[in-house]
Each structure stands twice: as C-alpha cells, then as structure tokens.
Amino acid sequence: MHAKDPVRQLRSYRTCWLPAEQKPLRASPRDSGTYVPELAAAIDNDRNLTDGSRRCARKLAEYVYRTNRDSRTAGITVTYLKKALGKSRRSVQRYLRELESAGYIAVAVVHTGARMCAGLMVELLAPLIPRHGWKKSIKPDAPNLSQKNSSRYRTRLIPRILWAVRCTSPILKAWDSLQPPLLPFPMAA
Which residue in 161, 145, 154 sits closest to 74, CA to CA? Predict the structure, then answer.
C-alpha cells in the first residue's frame, strides 16, 4: 500500500469544494445570416451516429440548402468541412462515412481531367429531409445560381468505392511486379 502524502492530502481538503477554473471564452462568431434548414428528427434519434456526424450532417444541410436545394446535391470539399467543423481531416472523413453507411447521404468523387479529385459531390437522401420537404420555404423571387464559373471544371462523378480502387491499383501493380512468379505445382503421376 502506498503512503499518503500529507501535504497533498491537506491541499486537497482545502480546495476540493472550490469550483473548477473557468476556461476563457472564445469570441462569438459573427452573424452571417445563415441557418440550418429543418431536418428530419431521425438524425437526432439515430443511436448509430456520433455527435460529430450529426453536426456534420447539419453543416452539409446548411451548405446544400444555400447552394442547390432543388436537387439536394452540392459539390463540397473535405477542407471546407474541416474548417467549418473545426475538426481534423480524418474526423471529417469518418463523419462522412458514418452518414453514408447510415443512409443519410450519398457521396461521389468529382474527378477532373487530372489525376486528382476536385472534391466531393454530396447528395442528401430522403431520411435526412423532412417529409414535407424544403419546397415550402423557398422564396419565389430568389435568384438562380450564378453561371459565372459553370465551365471552370470539366468534371465527371465517380462513386467513392471505384475511386478508392482506382487510387490503389498502381500500388497493387507495383506490388505484383515485386513478387516472383509462382512455380507450377508438381503433378503426381
């Protein structure tokens, strides 16, 4: 058994009832006028989701509502979500995988002519949207999206699984080239 330190024990008795020191508060974000549209309650009630993935779903809904609410799809990058949520890139990717596996979003990779992806195309699926939809709150005189950068990228959508296969195929080819060929099996007579 360990001997107790009497000095430490007395300090603990003197201060244990005191409230913890408050953390310094950060500055409040400026009011940008954005808001999260109404969502289905399923996102809050789903026990398979983490709080981070719920917050990510709200941020996605906000972004999609602002950019392209008619088709419920929008091109977005992990970097944007990383900055908006204040989380790491791996956390954001995990949140997106959780939401996709739970059936709230569908994700495809936006591929340019180069060897890199230009971002993700996220589609909000029916379980995330309330039954009455978003059409009710659209203002009839709202301007359409700008066509200024419509031809900026010549892109095509690739499902995320196929993109992963495409990215790992050079590694597999290199690995196969390092392996010696298999010897034929001896045939018993």
Answer: 145
Q: Which DSSP string corresponds to 90-144?
A: HHHHHHHHHHHHHTSEEEEEEE-SSSSEEEEEEEE-GGGS-TT-SGGG--TTPPP
Assess contact for 81 and 99: CB atoms under 8 A.
Answer: no
The correct answer on CATH 3.30.930.10 for the domain covering 31-136+152-163 is: no
Global pTM value: 0.66
Report d(CA 134, CA 69) in Å as an integer: 8
The two tokens of residue 83 are 């900055």
pLDDT (tens digit per residue) in 23-37: 788 888 788 777 777
> pLDDT for 36-51, tens place per residue?
778 888 888 989 999 9
**How many of the other CB atoms lie within 10 Å of CB of 113?**
10
| Closest to 65 measured CA to CA, from 146, 2, 150, 124 | 124
7, pLDDT greater than 60:
yes
E strands present in 142-188: 156-159
**C-alpha distances in angstroms, 90 versus 44, 86, 99, 125, 184?**
23, 12, 14, 23, 44
